């Protein structure tokens, strides 16, 4: 996986690099099939440490045996991320395949293939583990090769635990989804399942059909790197096609910031200066609310000389002669709840009442000025 990420990052623009969720010092899986998770740090940020579900910490059945058997299923990798003020959790999985038997009673007799009981127990163990580790209202997505078709027993366990199969919602573009071809038949073994909180923010889901219906002669396995049957090496190209035997699932999320922004309840009044040396103040906090009850801070890039602003939103000052000469003035104050900002404009005006002589002489001065202009 480190080689994969290095190759990806070699062709990324600065800031778009990928990182690896490193849950343990070794891979999660004992052979070439392992579970992993990579992410773009510019898009999402890991929250806390990753969790790993295996036999050692699995929920137990009524006989005290682990429901999640990591001798058959690869350990599950679970990581919470933060993006745009929200947190969501991804659980990546690879459940036991149908390719080899597990020694179960009447194994395969019900049409669900080998190891159906093992996969069903693993689904139960994963569902219970997530419920015990995460809040009941958490946004969670289960991803991976679950080696179960959409109506088989393991999937029913996930549905009963409150997860929706996104490939069968109105956000999917395919009337009949598939991700795998077996003996010429198409079906979905790879799934994206989400809790209601996260499913509501899904905008699209689809399989990228680059593998399942491509001929296996075009894959990267050749005699030179271990393929057991005869193949023509130059059929394999350095492109996406037949890079696996399963199609990847692509899910689009629109994670809108749930934090309510500060709002102006009513317009700020104009600060009116009626005389020289008048002291004035305005408490901006009286005119702003935050629906979440977040603590608000107030800041301004530049203030007129003689005007001050406290962090709790009080504008104050004294209108001396120099200040009076600068009126009217207006400046912006940024109100922040730590996530979202609101900009408000403070205005200070000179509204002194002039006596009739002052007005008369002002008119005379204006008239004289017009003569010389």
Strand order of the largest sheet: 3-4-5-6-10-7
What's the gyration radius in Å? Answer: 33 Å
Structural class determined from secondary elements: alpha+beta
Order of helices and strands: HEEEEEHEHEEEEHEEEEEEEEEHEEH
The average pLDDT is 90
Give the proportion of residues in helices.
Answer: 10-25%
Spans of at least 5 consecutive residues with low confidence: none
Number of strands: 21
Report how far the terminal alpha carbons are from each other.
Answer: 80 Å
Q: Quick one: biggest sheet?
A: 6 strands, mixed
Fraction of residues in β-strands: 25-35%
Number of helices: 6
Based on Cα principal axes, name the global outline.
elongated
Describe this structure in words.
This protein is of the alpha+beta class. Helix content is 16%, strand content 29%. It contains six helices and 21 strands. Strand 5, helix 2 and strand 6 (140-145) form a beta-alpha-beta unit. Helix 2 (116-133) runs parallel beside helix 3 (153-160).
């Amino acid at each position: 996986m480190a080689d994969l990420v290095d190759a990806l990052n070699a062709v990324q623009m600065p800031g778009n690099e990928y990182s690896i969720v490193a849950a343990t010092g070794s891979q999660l899986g004992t052979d070439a099939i392992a579970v992993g998770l990579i992410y773009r740090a510019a898009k999402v940020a890991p929250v806390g440490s990753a969790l790993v579900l295996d036999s050692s910490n699995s929920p137990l059945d009524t006989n005290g045996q682990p429901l999640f058997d990591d001798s058959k299923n690869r350990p599950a990798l679970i990581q919470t991320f933060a993006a745009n003020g929200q947190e969501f959790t991804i659980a990546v999985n690879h459940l036991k395949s149908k390719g080899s038997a597990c020694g179960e009673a009447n194994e395969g007799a019900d049409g669900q293939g080998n190891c159906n009981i093992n996969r069903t127990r693993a689904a139960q163990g994963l569902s219970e583990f997530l419920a015990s580790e995460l809040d009941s209202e958490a946004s969670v997505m289960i991803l991976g090769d679950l080696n179960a078709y959409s109506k088989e027993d393991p999937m029913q366990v996930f549905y009963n635990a409150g997860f929706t199969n996104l490939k069968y919602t109105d956000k999917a573009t395919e009337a009949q989804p598939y991700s795998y071809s077996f003996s010429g038949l198409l079906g979905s073994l790879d799934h994206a399942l989400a809790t209601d909180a996260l499913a509501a923010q899904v905008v699209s889901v689809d399989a990228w059909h680059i593998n399942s219906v491509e001929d296996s002669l075009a894959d990267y396995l050749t005699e030179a790197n271990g393929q057991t049957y005869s193949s023509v090496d130059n059929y394999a190209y350095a492109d996406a096609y037949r890079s696996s035997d399963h199609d990847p699932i692509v899910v689009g999320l629109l994670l809108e910031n749930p934090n309510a922004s500060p709002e102006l309840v009513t317009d700020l009044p104009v600060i009116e200066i009626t005389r020289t040396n008048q002291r004035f103040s305005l408490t901006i906090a009286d005119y702003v609310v935050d629906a979440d009850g977040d603590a608000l801070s107030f800041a301004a890039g530049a203030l007129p000389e003689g005007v001050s602003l406290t962090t709790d939103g009080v504008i104050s000052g004294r209108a001396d002669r120099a200040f009076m000469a600068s009126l009217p003035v207006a400046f912006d104050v940024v109100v922040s709840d730590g996530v979202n900002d609101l900009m408000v404009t403070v205005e200070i005006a000179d509204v002194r009442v002039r006596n009739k002589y002052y007005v008369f002489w002002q008119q005379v001065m204006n008239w004289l000025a017009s003569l010389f202009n």
